[in-house]
Write a structure and sequence with these properties.
This protein is mainly α. The protein has helices spanning 5-40, 44-63, 69-86. The model has no long low-confidence stretch (mean pLDDT 95).
Length: 87
């Protein structure tokens, strides 16, 4: 447990940031799963529409440092490749 005043404040801040980071990460994961599910059910048109939402979620996560830049690029590349292969 933090002892000094600054350490206590840092703990509070990190708890707040954790909530935002988890929310952003889960949003990214949910959209990715949604696209994979659509491709599995042969809903390629819907998957293409959802791809822009996935890109947005992935880019926001990368911008905030939740995932690294190359990780984001790899995720986007694999999603687009999956949709292209299905169509």
């Amino acid at each position: 447990m933090p002892i000094t005043k600054n350490a206590k404040k840092a703990l509070r801040a990190s708890k707040r940031k954790r909530v935002f980071n988890l929310r952003r990460k889960s949003k990214m994961d949910n959209v990715t799963k949604e696209i994979k599910k659509m491709v599995g059910l042969k809903n390629v048109k819907e998957a293409k529409v959802a791809l822009s939402r996935a890109y947005k979620a992935i880019d926001k996560a990368a911008k905030r440092g939740i995932i690294k830049k190359n990780n984001a690029a790899r995720k986007k590349s694999r999603l687009s490749k999956l949709i292209k292969k299905a169509s």
